[in-house]
Amino acid sequence: MKIHETALISKDAQIGRNVEIGAFTIINAGVSVGDYSTVGPFCELGVPSTNSSVSSLEIGSRSLIRSHSVFYSGSKFGAQLNTGHRVTVRENTIAGNNLQIGTLSDIQGDCLIGNYVRFHSSVHVGKESNIEDYVWVFPYVVLTNDPHPPSEVRLGVTLKSYAVIATHSTILPGVIVGSGSLVGAHSLVAKDVVEHTVVSGVPARYKCDASTILLRDGTGQPAYPWRKHFNRSYPVEVTERWLDET
Amino acid sequence: MKIHETALISKDAQIGRNVEIGAFTIINAGVSVGDYSTVGPFCELGVPSTNSSVSSLEIGSRSLIRSHSVFYSGSKFGAQLNTGHRVTVRENTIAGNNLQIGTLSDIQGDCLIGNYVRFHSSVHVGKESNIEDYVWVFPYVVLTNDPHPPSEVRLGVTLKSYAVIATHSTILPGVIVGSGSLVGAHSLVAKDVVEHTVVSGVPARYKCDASTILLRDGTGQPAYPWRKHFNRSYPVEVTERWLDET
Amino acid sequence: MKIHETALISKDAQIGRNVEIGAFTIINAGVSVGDYSTVGPFCELGVPSTNSSVSSLEIGSRSLIRSHSVFYSGSKFGAQLNTGHRVTVRENTIAGNNLQIGTLSDIQGDCLIGNYVRFHSSVHVGKESNIEDYVWVFPYVVLTNDPHPPSEVRLGVTLKSYAVIATHSTILPGVIVGSGSLVGAHSLVAKDVVEHTVVSGVPARYKCDASTILLRDGTGQPAYPWRKHFNRSYPVEVTERWLDET
Hints:
- The structure is a homotrimer of 246-residue chains.
- With 246 residues, the first copy, chain A, is mostly beta strands.
- Chain A has one domain: Hexapeptide repeat proteins (UDP N-Acetylglucosamine Acyltransferase, domain 1), CATH 2.160.10.10.
- Helix content of chain A is 4%, strand content 30%.
- Chain A is built from 1 helix and 31 strands.
- Chain A has one helix at 236-244; strands spanning 2-3, 8-9, 14-15, 20-21, 26-27, 31-33, 38-39, 44-47, 57-59, 64-65, 70-72, 75-76, 82-83, 88-89, 93-95, 100-101, 106-107, 111-113, 118-119, 124-125, 130-131, 136-137, 142-143, 158-159, 164-165, 170-171, 176-177, 182-183, 188-189, 197-200, 205-209.
- Chain A has a 10-stranded parallel sheet with strand order 2-5-8-11-14-17-20-23-26-29, with no helix packed on it.
- In chain A, strand 30 (197-200) and strand 31 (205-209) form a beta hairpin.
- The longest helix of chain A is centred in the last third of the chain and has 9 residues, at 236-244.
- The first copy, chain A, is globular, with a radius of gyration of 19 Å.
- Chains in contact: A-B, A-C, B-C.
- The A-B interface holds A 8, 24, 26, 42, 44, 47, 68, 70, 86, 88, 104, 106, 108, 122, 124, 140, 142, 144, 147-153, 155, 168, 170, 172, 188, 202 and B 6, 23-24, 40-42, 67-68, 84-86, 103-104, 118, 121-122, 136, 138-140, 164, 166-168, 182, 185-186, 201-202, 213, 215-217, 223-224, 226, 229-230, 232.
């Protein structure tokens, strides 16, 4: 266990075995950090929440939280959480295993996130979002929730498994993006996206079936479903299962 | 008064009564923090400015500045300033009471901001912006100012009272958005917006009068003017006045 | 030399003459900071990289790195690097002299950056980007690299000398923006941009030759080439050469 001497760790936090904690990091009461995890410098974990009845924050084992990140109380993450720098995660975020949250991403809380989800840098996840397993979201994407801002109405976005949202796109309130679909870069998505299709534009319209896009790597193989050719940072048991699918 | 022992407070700063200051926060000379305010950890207030003749920074009473935020000298805020994490506010920002600045927002300075203004996360406010009372601005909105970048010409944006700019929109230099108007998500606004109307698109065009949009809460009431149904985080004297308006 | 007493400086870092280092900043082994440079508080320089064979980080002389910034090992910067707050620079970023990186910008690494390049706030530079001298990039611009995300294919963006990318634009993988061209705000650029032209829209299309846009400063002079009227923050030897060009 390597806890930097300048870190401020509450005596009511639970720090697992072989955990590393960086300089100047603050870990408040009610936080548990799983075994073999690393928390970088300048973080604060367990910021007290006024909007949650839950005062704990659970970080699964073998996680990596990079510097300057802020997590509120009232959330729970499975094993192998991996964040960039300066992420913000508000209360009532419930996530599965192997979530990646890129640098500067801002998770507003009150949301469900599946297993093996990938948020690249600067992703904004509005409250009431529901994100299934193996989803990818790229920089400056916004998942909205208020159909006529400002109001108290919350219609969260749903991203089904294996969906991909390319950079700089906005998903309007209540939209469901179907499994395996691709939202092209810089799109405004105002209605549901049929599974395994590609939409793009402002507003986004159907462009083609995802399976008709070919990899620009010289092989001429289909680019989608992406899990047939892309396996970086997934465990072997997942990628072997993908290859066995027919 | 609870000032963390690791905070670095200049002897030439003025700290009001019952102020809390978090761990590792730096407060420089010339800063005044009003009574009953809280400043989170990892902040720096009063960064010396080379572009301002004013060396002071005034934070009104009952304010909350969250962690990792940076404020330059040469700005002034009324009571009840409330910020998210990692906001940046440059010199010559003059703001009224009850301003909210969301996480990661970037206020470039040389701007005027009224009372009860709401910036959500990741709002970019260019120099020479003029923002009236009760305005709302949502994530990844950019208020520009240079009509042919890069140049020394500055044509700031004006947002009139009660205007709402939805997420991911860009307002071009010199544009005036009228009182009570709504700019839809992901729009590029190149010309002035008539008051109480809705515009959207790239470039943005007139869509409808704001009053024709209905709340999606089952009541069938109009969604605009929003102050007739939305009152979260405003003081009672404001919201009672709104309800009394005819 | 003014190194704050709370800064954590590795004995294997090389700190030049007359360097200032702010409170709570971490400088790791293998970092060299050039003479007369300033590093603000809450930074970490030389974050160990798992993706680079180079364990050093070189910051040229007379540089200014503002607070809360993070630089990985494996990069090299010429003299007079100037950053905003909270920038992130990953490994294998090779940059010339007088680079400006605005607040919250996110440089993903594996990229080449020329001399006198200007990134405003919140610029996202994808891997394999190639940015020539005197380029300007404005807030929330994304330089992408993956033609069918997620994949292992990398087609970086090229921005030729004096090109300007206005705010909130996305440049798709492999696109080349020609010398002296302007991409208008809020555009999606899907194909190469001819030099000295203006493109805009979603998708971006040719609008006019850059030289036909006039300065809105009352002079009626052309706004482009911008180097004929704009010289802020460049050294005199550069701006005199620009004026001598015919």
